[in-house]
UniProtKB/TrEMBL annotation:
EC number: 1.1.1.300
GO cellular component, one term: cytosol
Main localization of the protein described in the UniProt heading: membrane
Compartmental location: Membrane
Catalytic activity line of the entry: all-trans-retinol + NADP(+) = all-trans-retinal + NADPH + H(+)
Protein name per Swiss-Prot or TrEMBL: Retinol dehydrogenase
InterPro entries: 17beta_DH, NAD(P)-bd_dom_sf, Sc_DH/Rdtase_CS, SDR_fam
Sequence positions that bind substrate: 144
Binding site for NADP(+): 13-41, 67, 161
An MF annotation (GO) of this entry: all-trans-retinol dehydrogenase (NAD+) activity
Catalytic residues in the record: 157
């Protein structure tokens, strides 16, 4: 039996973090099932990817420029593919925004949606005609648990992910008629250079337009809590990338995959009470009223996820 041709996988946002690790893991697949087109907006940032790719570079991995916010850039990249054929599209490019909403300009909000929402849709629209014609394809979107459950001071970022979730949930139904699958991969906190740099920047910001009490809550309550959450529950880009690779490898990929099971109970609160009071009240109480309970729960999670604890409870 002839060996199947490698599947062509295009990934956006590969200069660092999850995108870089996904590209490398797929390119280094022992069975060589994939040919990866790793893209980024600025090719001056390709050094890290080239170093990580090693001897897969220009073999099972190639690097191209692609700006998901630019129609011409998207068209140029897709048109460069043989017969415009793409087996898997991974929408990974994204930007973050955190802080009091009063201090965020409308232009900054539009910038988040231009990348996180319209950038992904621009890519999907570009690949759908060929996938529909061939009646085969897989579209993966790196979403977030914040596309399912809002988090304080992440209003605009969560909104962009909520929008993407709704768009894809609607589109997934009709695309099944064309044998095209959509997969939403929803990480919780991920420890990347991008996240750390963002947190450092906002800690130094003044947030003009926001009242003093809100700025104090943000800096003295939210930021320390966020740091503790990332320290306790944060996953590595490698771990999330592996989850994405597993989704891509499935013959019938799932629509939703949460990479961090520790976060699942927090998301489930939203669906346990149709009034919304349970999830909103729980977040409010943990963040602003019973902070001791919040720290205790983080300590408990650190304990149960400790590698030495896992070794003790794992049966021989």
């Amino acid at each position: 039996m002839a060996k199947a041709a490698p599947r062509t996988v295009l990934i956006t946002g590969c200069s660092s973090g999850i995108g870089l690790r996904m590209a490398v893991q797929l390119a280094q697949d022992p069975s060589k099932r994939f040919h990866v087109i790793a893209t980024m907006r600025d090719l001056r940032k390709k050094d890290k990817l080239e170093a990580a790719a090693g001897d897969t570079l220009n073999k099972t991995l190639s690097i191209q420029r692609l700006d998901v916010c630019n129609d011409e850039s998207v068209a140029e990249c897709i048109n460069s593919l043989p017969e415009k054929r793409l087996d898997v599209l991974v929408n990974n490019a994204g930007v973050g925004l955190v802080g009091p909403v009063e201090s965020i300009s409308i232009d900054d909000m539009k910038r988040i949606f231009e990348t996180n929402f319209f950038g992904a849709i621009r890519m999907i629209k570009a690949v759908l005609p060929e996938m529909k014609q061939r009646r085969r394809g897989h579209i993966v979107v790196i979403s977030s648990v914040m596309g399912l459950q809002g988090v304080p001071f992440n209003d605009v970022y969560a909104a962009s992910k909520f929008a993407m979730e709704g768009f894809c949930e609607s589109l997934a139904v009709q695309l099944l008629k064309f044998n095209i699958f959509i997969s939403m991969v929803e990480p919780g906190p991920v420890n990347t250079e991008f996240e750390m740099k963002l947190m450092e920047e906002v800690a130094r910001s003044e947030f003009p337009g926001a009242d003093a009490a809100t700025v104090r809550y943000f800096k003295e309550v939210y930021l320390p809590a966020s740091h503790e959450i990332f320290t306790t529950m944060g996953q590595t880009p490698e771990y999330v990338a592996k989850a994405v690779v597993n989704v891509i490898a499935k013959e019938r990929p799932p629509f939703r995959t949460q990479t961090n099971t520790l976060y699942t109970p927090l998301v489930a609160l939203k669906y346990a009470d149709t009034s919304g009071d349970l999830s909103v009240g729980t977040y409010y109480n943990l963040l602003f009223r019973f902070t001791g309970l919040f720290h205790l729960s983080m300590s408990f999670l650190k304990c149960i996820t400790c590698s030495c604890f896992r070794r003790r409870v794992t049966p021989a």
